[in-house]
Amino acid sequence: MTTAAGTTLPEWELPLTPTLIVSTAIATRDFQDVHHDRDLAQGHGSKDIFMNILTTTGLVQKYVGDWARTVVGPDFRIAGCALRLGAPAYPYDTMTFSGTVVDDESAPAGATVVDVLGSVSLGNHVNARVTVVNP
Fold first, then answer.
1. CA–CA separation, 114 vs 3, rounded Å?
2. 97-110 mean pLDDT
3. pLDDT: is 14 or 5 the higher one?
């Protein structure tokens, strides 16, 4: 396996259950009602509860980390994760992660940079750039 620019990561499909969305919001200590109370979320104009940004960040890093453990090495470290949210991630949908290794001249020497897309049925939920280093 390689970390050359253009290398694609295997896709990962994650079913989004209400339990996943609620439990990860609570685990990240995000008690905002839109992440765990359907009635209140709908009262705020949302279709349903939706995933919080801390969970999304963790899932992006898990996706890249699972790949990096094998390709970069078991001692890899995520040195950066910049992301932008888009479409909400609601229960009963599936989030599909894909990634591509890219050239990034601003990255530290020897780092591997991966652009990640997490999409749901409504469109792109997250666009991220993750920097991985092997100390």
1. 9
2. 89
3. 14
Distance of alpha carbon 21 from alpha carbon 9, whole angstroms = 25
Cα distances from 126 to residues 5, 107, 117, 120, in angstroms, run 21, 21, 6, 9
Per domain, the residue ranges of the chain are 8-133
Which of 60 and 103 is assigned the larger pLDDT?
A: 60
Residue 79 CA to residue 135 CA, distance in Å, equals 10
Number of H helices, E strands in the chain: 3, 5
Query: How would you list the strands of the sheet with 93-102, edge to edge?
Result: 8-16, 93-102, 112-120, 123-133, 77-85
CATH topology of domain 8-133: Thiol Ester Dehydrase; Chain A (3.10.129)
Mean pLDDT of 75-82: 96
Q: Which two tokens stand for residue 94?
A: 């599936």
pLDDT of residue 1: 59
**Strand locations in 2-133 (E):** 8-16, 77-85, 93-102, 112-120, 123-133
- Res 2 pLDDT > 80: no
